[in-house]
Design goal:
- The complex is a heterodimer of chains A (about 110) and B (about 110).
- By secondary structure, chain A is an all-beta fold.
- Helices cover about 0% and strands about 45% of the residues of chain A.
- Chain A has a five-stranded mixed sheet, with no helix packed on it. Chain A has a four-stranded antiparallel sheet with strand order 2-7-6-5, with no helix packed on it.
- Chain A is globular, with a radius of gyration of 13 Å.
- Chain B is globular, with a radius of gyration of 13 Å.
- In chain B, the strands form two sheets. In chain B, strands 2, 4, 5, 6, 9, 10 and 11 form a seven-stranded mixed sheet that branches. Chain B has a four-stranded antiparallel sheet with strand order 1-3-8-7, with no helix packed on it.
- Classes of the chains: A mainly beta (about 110), B mainly beta (about 110).
- At the A-B interface, β3 and β4 of A face β5 and β10 of B.
């Protein structure tokens, strides 16, 4: 299972674009990269998933360089309600039954 | 449109007591999971069930048992609760093992005194 490293915490301001980077140097060929968001007292919520290059949905974008050893979750024009913990997960989504959540990045949006 | 439903939401147990946490999903998902979350620790996988009739251990299975009762329901049992099992427990499901991401329940906050 690929280990991930992401910042423990980040602060940003409303209206800014926020980029959270995750390192996964030993990512395997069949591994996908998935990001989750967790608000206090709630279960994590799936945000976005990708394998390479760029993926975009209505919530976020995910940038994955060619070597796939890192990935960046981009949140456009954040608001106070984006304050949450963001988890980067790496695993073979078609095989791994034990995808591991790390400690995540605690994002704090300031007014 | 319930998704993943967990009961109870809160529970206080005395050391040595037993209890079962219930989880049900209405999305026809094949895979179901139990995680625990301790302050500052992220989520740790306790047990999972890749399909009806199968279960397997995760990272921290000691002190727990599970039952995949049918496709919808996956229960977690604490036979003899210990203070170290004080945590927030989350159930999750996915269409297949991890594909398209997991859907989580709202959690059960368990305190063992």
């Amino acid at each position: 299972l690929a280990k991930t490293t992401q910042p423990i915490s980040m602060d940003s301001y409303e209206g800014q674009e926020v980029n959270i980077t995750c390192s996964h140097n030993n990512i395997a060929t069949n591994d996908y990269i998935t990001w989750y968001q967790q608000f206090p007292s709630q279960g994590p919520r799936f945000i976005i998933q990708g394998y390479k290059t760029k993926v975009t949905n209505e919530v976020a974008s995910l940038f994955i360089p060619a070597d796939r050893k890192s990935s960046t979750l981009s949140l456009p024009r954040v608001s106070l309600s984006d304050t949450a913990v963001y988890y980067c997960l790496v695993g073979d989504i078609k095989r791994d039954d034990k995808i591991i959540f790390g400690k995540g990045t605690r994002l704090h949006i300031l007014p | 449109n319930a998704g993943v439903t967990q009961t109870p939401k809160f529970q206080v147990l005395k050391t040595g007591q037993s209890m079962t946490l219930q989880c049900a999903q209405d999305m026809n998902h094949n895979s179901m999971y139990w995680y625990r979350q301790d302050p500052g620790m992220g989520l740790r996988l306790i047990y999972y069930s890749a399909s009806e009739g199968t279960t397997d251990k995760g990272e921290v299975p000691n002190g727990y048992n599970v039952s995949r009762l049918n496709k919808r329901e996956f229960s977690l049992r604490l036979e003899s609760a210990a203070p170290s099992q004080t945590s927030v427990y989350f159930c999750a499901s996915s269409e297949e093992t991890g594909i398209y991401g997991y859907t989580f329940g709202s959690g059960t906050r368990l305190t063992v005194v």
